[in-house]
Amino acid sequence: MAKKKDDNNKLVAENRRARFDYMIEDTLEAGIQLVGTEVKSLRNGRANIAESYASTDKGELWLINATIPEYPPAGQFNHEPRRPRKLLVRARELKKLVGAVEREGRTLAPLRLYFNERGIAKIQIALATGKKAHDKREATKDRDWKRQQARLMKDRG
Asked: Residue 148 and residue 134: Cα distance in Å, rounded?
C-alpha cells in the first residue's frame, strides 16, 4: 500500500483563512532560514502564519509577519518573534514568482508551516489571486450545501 506524501510531515501551523480569501493557483515548497531558538519553539508546535505573507526584496524572498513565539528556556539569547525570515527557493522558481507577482498582480500567501520527513522546517507558499466578496459568498454557499448533503446521506444510509 502506497503512503501519501504528507504522512511523515509534522504540521506546525496552517493558514486556513488563505483558502477562503484567495483562489490558489499554484503551490511551492520553500525552506525557511531560522535560528536555533525558533526551531525549538516550532518543535513545541508554536507558530502563527495567519496574517503573514511572502514578499520579494532585492532578489530574495521573505516571510513577513509570521509569529514564532520566544523559547522560554533560552533566556537572553532568544529571537525576535515577528522578524522577517528569509525563504529559500531556487533561482528559477524565484524568477517565476516575481514575474507573477509584479506583472499579473498575484499574491504569495503561506499555507502551511511544517517539518518534512528529514526534520527540516518547510513552508508551503501559494501563488494566489484575491477573491471578490461574491466569490466568497458562493464558496460559503457551496460548502454549506455539501455539508447538508452529507447529513442527508448519512441519515438515509
From this structure: 21
Q: Please write the tens of the pLDDT for every residue from 39-97.
A: 888 888 888 888 888 888 888 888 888 888 888 787 777 777 788 888 888 888 888 88
Residue 34 burial class via C-beta count within 10 angstroms: exposed 0-12, middle 13-18, buried 19 and up: middle
Reported for 60-67, long-range contacts at CB under 8 A and 24+ positions apart, including other chains, are 60/86, 60/87, 60/94, 61/30, 61/86, 61/87, 61/89, 61/94, 61/97, 61/108, 62/86, 62/87, 63/32, 63/87, 63/110, 63/123, 66/110, 66/113
Contact by Cβ (8 Å): 63, 15 = no
Specify whether domain 8-131 bears CATH 3.40.910.10. no
Give me the residue spans of the domains in the chain. 8-131
66's grid cell: 509570521
- Site of grid cell 509569529: 67
What pTM does this model have? 0.74
Backbone torsions φ then ψ of 123, nearest 5 degrees? -130, 135
